[in-house]
Amino acid sequence: MTEVMKALRACGVSCYYSKLPLDLICCVKKETLLVEVKEEGGRLTKVQEDFIASWPGRIELVRGPEDAVRKVLGSAVMA
Hints:
Elements: H1 2-10, E1 14-17, E2 24-28, E3 31-37, H2 46-54, E4 59-62, H3 65-73
Parallel strand pairs: 3-4
Antiparallel strand pairs: 1-2, 2-3
């Protein structure tokens, strides 16, 4: 979690650790999004699945710092 937040913050993304229902509340270029961080092979809980299904806003499921930067900022930033 800490490494994901460090990577996103280093790219100018504001991050707040919220834990529930998802791990992070982020803001990039005035767009707010929620981010769930899972280890490789980690699975969403039933509560998280239900929340994601009902949430109208942007949500990203990430599996590490590079994946987080790529999904939150777009693949062009990784080039």
